[in-house]
Amino acid sequence: MAETLTSLTLVQPCITQSSLQTTKVEFSSLSKSVRQCSSSRFHKIEGGRRRSLVRAKALPDWPLMAVMVEHAEGQRDLITHKSIWHLSDQAIKNVYTFYIMFTVWGCCFFGSTKDPFYDSEGYRGDGGDGTGHWIYEKQEDIEESARAELWREELIEEIEQKVGGLRELEEAGKK
Amino acid sequence: MAALSPKPITPCLTLPPSTPSLQSTTLSFSTRRTASLSIPNAKKKNPWLDPFDQGDDPEMEYGQLFSDGKQDEDPRPPDNPGNPYGFLKFPQGYAVEVASLGLKIRGDVRRCCCVVSGGVYDNLLFFPAIQMIKDRYPGVQVDVLTTARGKQTYEINKNVRFADVYDVDDPFPEPAEYTDIIGQLKNRYYDMILSTKLAGIGHGAFLFMSSARDVVSYVYPNVNAAGAGLFLSETFTPATTNLAEGGYHMYREMIDWLGRPFRSVPRQALPPLKVSISRKVKEVVEAKYTSAGAVKGRYIVIHGIKSDSKASMQSKGDPDSLLPIEIWDDIASAISGLTPLFVIPHEKERENVEYVVGDDASIVFITTPGQLAALINDSAGVICTNTAAVQLANAREKPSITLFCSEDKAKVFVPNADEKKCAVISSKTGKLVDIDVEAVKTAVQIFSLPLAIA
Predict the structure, then answer these.
(1) Which domains does chain B possess?
(2) Which segments show compositional bias classed as Low complexity (chain B) (predicted)?
C-alpha cells in the first residue's frame, strides 16, 4: 500500500473547475481531462505501469476527492475514484467549536424551558401591585404618603385647637 | 467700586421688624455683610444667563392676572359642572393656554427641589426654610435631595413630598448614580432647585442639568467658585467655607433671598423650627423607653455621650460637642425624682454606660432624629450638648439644659435661649470637657421645681 501511495502524483491544477458535483455524470469528462494533462506527468514505473493520483477540491480549500488512475500498456486505464474527507486543523476546530456552542446553547435553552422559576408567578406574573400600574418607587411612595398623613394629622390638630379656642370664646361670651 | 458701596446693606435694614428673633438675625447679618464687603465676592448679575436682561422695566404696567400677589394654591382651572362635555371641564373663556403664565410673570414655583448637604443637624436647621418656601409659594411641592443620614430627618417634616438620597458632598460619585439622579431631577420638572452645598463648577453643572428654571445655590467663598456662576441663576457667598458655623441661622443668605419682597408681596417672615411626629414613631419610641424603665413624662433625656458613631447628630460647625460618660454620670446624679435616660448612638456604648452609671441605668438606643424627637416629646426635659437634641427640644418647647464649649457657639446655635426655656451653660476654657459641672447641677433643679409645686 505504501508503495502505491508514494508513486502517486498530484495533478491538481488541471481540475480546479471541478466541484462537489463530480459524480458519475461528469466522470467521463473528468477522466478525460486527467488523461489530457497527465501525459507529461505520468511516471514510468518498473513493471510497465503508470499511476497517478488526482486530488480534487470540493470547496476551494477543502480537499475532498482523490481519483487514482492506474495505467497499464495495452489495457484500459483502471480508475479508482476515492472520496476522502481531508479536514484541516482549523476546520476541525471550527466543527468542534460549533458542536460545543450548540450543545451549550441547547443545555441553556432546553434546560430553561423546564425551570420552575421562569414558570413561576413571580417571573411570569403581571407585576406591579395589582392596580394595573407598574410601581417602581414603592418605598418613596410609602414615605411620601406617611408625610402626607403627618400633614393631615397636624392640620386636624390645628383645626381642633382653633375650634376649641372658638368654643371657649363662645362660652365666655355667653357668660 | 460699585461693589464696595454700601448699597446691598439697605434692603436688610429696611426689613419690617416682625419678630425679635428675626430682627436680631438680620442685624447680625448686616454686620457680617459689612465685614465681607472687603472680600471681592460682591454679588453681580450673571450676564451669561440672559445678556438682554436689563432688570425690571419701571414703566411696565402689569395687569392683575398672574402678576400680583402670591400664586394660587391649586392651579387647576375651576370646574364647570354645566358642561355637557366631560373633557372640557373649565368654564368658557378660561384660557388654558395662558394658565402657566404665572410661572413666567410672577415667578410661580410649583415644584421645588432642595439639595441639602450635611447630616441630621444641617437638615433639621433647613426645616424653617422649607416652611418658608411653603408659605411663600402656596401649593408648592417640596422635594429634598440629601445624604442618607440627612434623609432620616424628613420623617419629622410634614412639608416634604419626596426625600431622595444622593450624597452631594461625594467628590467622586458613581457615574451610574450621578446620571440616575440627574434623570430623576429632570423627570420631575422642577421650577426651582435650591442647593446648600457650596457649589463649584461641578456642582453648578449638576444643578443646571436638572433643567430647573431657577437654579439657586451657595457658592464657595474662594477661587473654587470659578465658573459656577455660569450655571446658576442666583448665588450666595457665605463668609466661611463651613456653612454650619453659622449655627441656627446657617442658611441666612438663602432665607433672606427666599423671603424677598416681590411686587405686592411683603417680605416673608422666617417661621420658627417646628417638627411633627407621627403616631407610629411615637408608639415605637414609647415601647423603647418603657422597656428601658422610664415612664412617660417622668424622665430626662441625656443626649451627647462621647462616641465615634455617625449617629451622634453633631453639627459640623461645632466639632467639640460630646461629653464622656463619666461627666454625664456626675451630672445625672443631681437629678432627683426623675429618671435620667441615656441615649446611646450605638449599641457598643451600652457597656460603657452600664459600667460607669450602673447596671440599673436607663439606656435607650436611638439613631434617628424622628425617634429622638418622639423621645424628647414624651420627656420632662432634656440635658444635652450641642447636638440635634437641642433644636428638637426647642422645637417641641421642652425645657432643656444645653452645654456648649464656648459662649460664641452658644449664641450662634441657640440665638435667643431665654425665650425657649433653654438654659445655656458654656465652658469658660473653650473646651467642653472643662464645663462647670456644679453649675449644671444647679441648673438641673429647674426640672424638679415644677414637680415640687405639682
Answers:
(1) 101-258 (3.40.50.2000), 280-453 (3.40.50.2000)
(2) 10-38
